[in-house]
From TrEMBL:
<dbReference type="GO" id="GO:0016655">
    <property type="term" value="F:oxidoreductase activity, acting on NAD(P)H, quinone or similar compound as acceptor"/>
</dbReference>
<dbReference type="InterPro" id="IPR050712">
    <property type="entry name" value="NAD(P)H-dep_reductase"/>
</dbReference>
<dbReference type="InterPro" id="IPR005025">
    <property type="entry name" value="FMN_Rdtase-like_dom"/>
</dbReference>
<keyword id="KW-0288">FMN</keyword>
<feature type="domain" description="NADPH-dependent FMN reductase-like">
    <location>
        <begin position="3"/>
        <end position="128"/>
    </location>
</feature>
<dbReference type="GO" id="GO:0010181">
    <property type="term" value="F:FMN binding"/>
</dbReference>
<keyword id="KW-0285">Flavoprotein</keyword>
<dbReference type="InterPro" id="IPR029039">
    <property type="entry name" value="Flavoprotein-like_sf"/>
</dbReference>
<dbReference type="Pfam" id="PF03358">
    <property type="entry name" value="FMN_red"/>
</dbReference>
<dbReference type="GO" id="GO:0005829">
    <property type="term" value="C:cytosol"/>
</dbReference>
<protein>
    <submittedName>
        <fullName>NADPH-dependent FMN reductase</fullName>
    </submittedName>
</protein>
Length: 165
């Protein structure tokens, strides 16, 4: 819902955000990947989309004080083959969301730590954590003005990190 709102309502006018589902990505298994040529089709499609992107917006809920397992799994696939990650040096804006007042701050730290290890070029400020997320969503859209403005600021920072085409 947050990514949909970002892609449809909040991205800068000269920017397009394509939302990719992670539902088809299998559990990471290096034996299925090797040099990258043997990766499952869903992984190859995701890697290609990331390769073609000028920058990324990555969002995760917080589950049990960390990012979602689905997100970690996708990042494991995208970080390989070692030294050849399609994420390497990509500008990335991250956000997390939680029903708790902390907004997923622990997931944000874990997500950013994983991305630093790849390494990507993270938008350092603002760090976007959305607390009490349930009250900020209505009819499938992010409606909280303060959060929307914070996200817009992050998107502008991300856009500034992307070289002119």
């Amino acid at each position: 819902m947050i990514l949909r709102t970002i892609s449809e309502e909040l991205v800068p006018v000269d920017t397009r955000l394509v939302v990719h589902s992670l539902h088809e990505i299998p559990l990471y298994n290096e034996d299925l990947d090797g040099d990258g040529a043997k990766a499952p089709e869903a992984v190859r499609r995701l890697r290609q989309a990331v390769l073609e992107a000028d920058g990324l917006v990555i969002g995760s809920p917080e589950y049990n004080h960390g990012m979602s397992g689905v997100m970690k799994n996708a990042l494991d696939w995208l970080s390989r083959p070692h030294g050849q990650s399609v994420l390497k040096a990509k500008p990335v804006l991250t956000f997390t969301a939680s029903p708790a007042f902390t907004g997923g701050v622990r997931a944000q730290q874990q997500l950013n730590e994983t991305l630093w290890a790849i390494p990507v070029e993270l938008v350092r400020y603002p760090q976007i954590v959305i607390g009490g997320v349930g009250s900020k969503i209505a009819q499938g859209r992010l409606v909280d003005d303060a959060v929307r403005q914070f996200l817009e600021k992050g998107l502008l920072e991300l856009r500034a990190m992307i070289p002119q085409l």
